[in-house]
Design brief:
Elements: H1 3-12, H2 17-67, H3 77-91, E1 97-105, E2 111-119, E3 131-132, E4 135-136, E5 140-148
Antiparallel strand pairs: 1-2, 2-5, 3-4
Helix pairs in contact: 2-3
Length: 157
């Protein structure tokens, strides 16, 4: 160190290694902070996705049980699918999730409803982002299926 730096460190109460350590910690913080920020964003989005999946499973299965297992007179599969989709959309009215429902026939007159949740990453609620500091945040999907036998009241087999 030069004489000027020694004098400045003495005025500040720092000596030798202590003066250099303060600058080193600032540089280390500048290097580590972006990494910590990316880890925090990924962790928050992962927890938010898991939370949405848990609620989605419950709501999707309940909607299928309510609207598809005992359809109204004259109600077809497409109307049942639309009612299930509307119930799910109403429960998940958030800007970072999107839901869709598909229906297909299965063996023995049973019908399979498949609901899919599409999750878009968010930056602590500040909108959708596709990357944070160069790290890509992918869109995630979660699906749940339920096979039911749509009972037709008043129909004799």
């Amino acid at each position: 160190m030069s004489t000027k730096e020694d004098a400045r460190c003495r005025v500040l109460g720092l000596r030798g290694a202590s003066a250099r350590a303060g600058g080193q910690m600032t540089v280390e913080l500048a290097v580590v902070f972006p990494v910590l920020l990316v880890v925090a964003v990924v962790a928050v989005n992962a927890l938010l996705f898991f939370s949405e999946c848990a609620g989605f499973d419950r709501v999707a299965r309940d909607a299928v049980r309510v609207h598809a297992t005992s359809p109204a007179y004259g109600q077809g599969l497409e109307q049942s699918r639309a009612l299930v989709a509307a119930t799910i959309e109403q429960a998940f009215d958030r800007p970072f999730v999107d839901a869709r429902v598909a229906v297909e026939g299965a063996k023995g007159g049973c019908v399979r409803f498949t609901a899919t949740l599409e999750f878009s990453p968010t930056l602590f609620g500040m909108g959708m982002r596709s990357s944070v500091l160069g790290v890509a945040l992918p869109h995630l999907e979660h699906s749940v299926s339920m096979t039911v036998d749509p009972y037709k009241p008043g129909v004799l087999l």
